[in-house]
């Protein structure tokens, strides 16, 4: 199945420079968020906000949350300011 992965801020470094922070991943049917992130080398511990199709996925649900064909997975790191 194919999903779109968008990485933001410092997480974009896990994708090729010319990717614009997005990648289309071809994953096994029933793959989880954790598996999608592992496919590009992003440690789940670096993800602070995770959205699937614009809906927030709570941290305890991430390991078991399965993705479906056409899903859009967006991942944001913790961002500080001051």
In words, what does this structure look like?
The structure is a single chain. The model has no long low-confidence stretch (mean pLDDT 94). The chain has a single domain (2-76), classed as Roll (Ubiquitin-like (UB roll)), CATH 3.10.20.30. The chain has a five-stranded mixed beta sheet, covered by helices on one side. It has one helix at residues 33-39, and strands at 2-7, 22-26, 49-52, 55-56, 72-76. Strand 3 and strand 4 form a beta hairpin. The protein contains one helix and five strands. With 82 residues, it is mainly beta.
Features:
27% strand; globular; 5-stranded mixed beta sheet; mainly beta; Ubiquitin-like (UB roll); 82 residues; 1 helix; 9% helix
Quick recap:
With 82 residues, this protein is mainly beta. Helix content is 9%, strand content 27%.
Topology:
Blueprint lengths: L1 E6 L14 E5 L6 H7 L9 E4 L2 E2 L15 E5 L6
Parallel strand pairs: 1-5
Antiparallel strand pairs: 1-2, 3-4, 3-5
Largest sheet: 5 strands, mixed
Question: What fraction of residues sit in β-strands?
Answer: 25-35%
Rg, Å, rounded: 12 Å
Number of strands: 5
Order of helices and strands: EEHEEE
- As a percent range, the share of helical residues equals under 10%
Class, according to the CATH hierarchy?
Answer: Alpha Beta
Poorly predicted sequence stretches spanning 5 or more consecutive residues = none
CATH superfamily: Beta-grasp domain
């Amino acid at each position: 199945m194919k999903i779109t992965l968008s990485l933001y801020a410092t997480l974009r470094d896990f994708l090729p420079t010319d990717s614009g922070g997005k990648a289309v991943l071809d994953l096994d049917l029933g793959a989880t968020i954790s598996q999608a992130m592992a496919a590009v080398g992003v440690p789940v511990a670096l993800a602070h906000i995770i959205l699937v199709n614009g809906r927030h996925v709570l941290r305890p649900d991430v390991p078991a949350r399965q993705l479906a064909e056409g899903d859009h997975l967006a991942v944001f790191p913790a961002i500080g300011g001051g």
